[in-house]
What does this fold into?
Amino acid sequence: MYQTLQEIEDAKVQKNGDRGEEPRRAREIRRKSSNSVTQKPFRTRLRNDSGLYIKHLQLTKIASPTTRTYSTQRRTRDQKPVGDGTVLDSDHTRSPEEDSIKRRTNQPSSSQPKTLLSRKGHEKIKAKKAENEPSNGEGRTQEPTHRSPTQRGPRDSSIPSGHGSGALWKSLTKERWDASDSFKPIGTAVGTGDDSKRLDGTVTRAKSVNLVLESVAKGSSEEVSAISPLQAPPFGVPASSSICQADPNTELNQGTSHTLSHRQIFLRKYRKARDLKKKNERWRRAIIDGSLHESTLARIRSGQVNEDILELAKEHGIVPYTPEELTQLKSTDSVVAMEGGTRSSELDEDKDQHGLDEHHMQKIQRAVSADMKDAHEKLNVSRQPPKTLYEELFPEEKEASVPSSPQPQSKIVIKPFEWNKGLVGRWDHFNTKEGLEKYPPVETEIAVSGAPDFDPYEVEQAYQNVLQPVAVALEGVSPNLEESDFFRITPKGAHIEGWTSGIIKGIFQRLYFPNKHTDWRYSDTIP
Amino acid sequence: MIQSREALTLEPLGKYWILFTSEVAALAYIDQTIRLHDFAQKNVGGIMLPSTVVTMSTSEEDLQAALRSFSLVPGQHKLEMVKLRMPYQPGEAHMVRHSGPKHLKDLQPNEEGLVVFALTSGVATSREIKDVLDKDGRARNMLWGLVEDTGIQELNVLRGEPSRSAKRTVSFNSTKDAEWVPYTAPSKFVLTFKDRYEARRFVREWHRRPFTQPSLYGTDEEPPIVLAEYIW
It folds into this structure.
């Protein structure tokens, strides 16, 4: 049974027996597999025991501290998945039955999944493996049983529903996992074979698609396998191995709290810009009215405002500070500070409205500034990612996983539907000199057929004939008919307003062709 | 719609070309004509068969109106109506090419009405015709609105059987041609009016009217009759 494309290709190559001329695709795959520590996402064609193929089950390795993970593979004893700081498997929950199976199959016990981390982190894990024994998994109530696809038998692991603390996870998976008694998901058959070719054990059952995508957008570099949600296993198909749910006690909530969605970021920016705009407008009005407060005036004079406001202030005769005055202000630690300037000025402006004295205002100001400071600190703290095991182990890796600013979304440009492409403008070159030389106009009509030898001039003729009127000949009738005799019986479209018969009013022309080759039956009688 | 006429004498041949803007319209027209003709065939004697009612699926009054309005082909005649197919004959091709909307638009200022002005007998010059028409216009208190230069054009008829009533002969210089007795048919003109309605008015006034020009007929003869026909 082939599990991966790679194995299939390998088998093909071996079958051919021609190593020197092995296909390029196989060579590439071989080269990749030889030095692939960080496996790229690839497609596997999997087969379960019932003989059904799961086509294109895409296993994408997406890493994020925010993604829920669960395993699809049977772990070895020493396996310590570190991907998001959660350990899904532990020794004391492993059943002895599985251990015996593992010993029988004699699988090499890789200490950790290779695809879980980057190369750097992988080596570091190796180094620190002994001293950092993760102590997770204590709060777990149920340990999912990992099965190899070859293993059959009654399922002893019921997937807990609503077990985790994440509301998203609950809401998304509740309906499906509630029926966990009858639900037998298809396993991904990546667990068999040797461990080096395995995919990573932790697979994000990407019910939380947004989280996964978000973490990708923020450029987190950890790697965790994820199954695309579109390729969720169907129900009712006998399973070869189980998809196990992650530890519900992981830091899902923390992960969601410190990650800002695009909407949140956008809203913050929007509100900031809106407030700034309002403030500028207020200042501008104050400058024009002349009711500028001292602190605001000082702020403007020190040049800590917008350029247009500065220009407006110059127009209204507000002179900026000289350098001497600036140094004096700094030394005296004026109210016009960089940080609290706006807040104080606003408060001062409010004071006039509320009619408070200076003492009260200073109190309020202090309190508010303290609150603001606290709030800022809280915000900064909450923006920081939580302390996970991975970050504890490798604090220098933390910078790489800091969510960067969201990438600007690409503007979608819809192409106009080119309905006349290929018809209009295609034969414009016939009007040029070269085109006329190449395809000189002929006088005779060309019968257009689906001939294999394609002549564009013929097609042009056909196109022009389409635009020409369609002639109908009526013979054997009275020569004294009138126009109205023809127009009277035209079918009228009752359902289309303005629909006409389409009869063209011809114009009488007296033509004849004094040529022996012309057909006198038509040419002589054409008016 | 173009009525086919003989190229030299402009005599109608009982053949018509109907030009359509699209093939769909042409096929719809043919279909309608065939159904109406079928209906007219079954109701020659004025008796309506029930089967036709079913096929037409309209009320009886509509059927009668349709039957009355269908004047193209009598019911007892065969309907010959075909759509022309490519490749066209040269004449057809010319007609089709120069009857499109574009060409018609180019010809829009040329909206004069044409009238075939034929005499049953006698040979007249265009000058004589003009004199007669001016005289009639003065009597009518309004001159006929003919186009100035090409208002009256004579159709040169140079073939056909010799007419006994021909009074004037064309003289030829060469003796060889003198042996061949020349023939002149009764005079035929194409009158070009500035307006189509004026042309129709003229036809209504002058059709079957005796052309009382004393030089055209003898004292013992009846004056020739004018056959005026509007060319549409």
In short: Chain B has two domains: 2-106, 113-231. Helices of chain B lie at 23-42, 50-56, 60-69, 90-97, 101-106, 126-140, 175-179, 196-206. The mean pLDDT of chain B is 76.
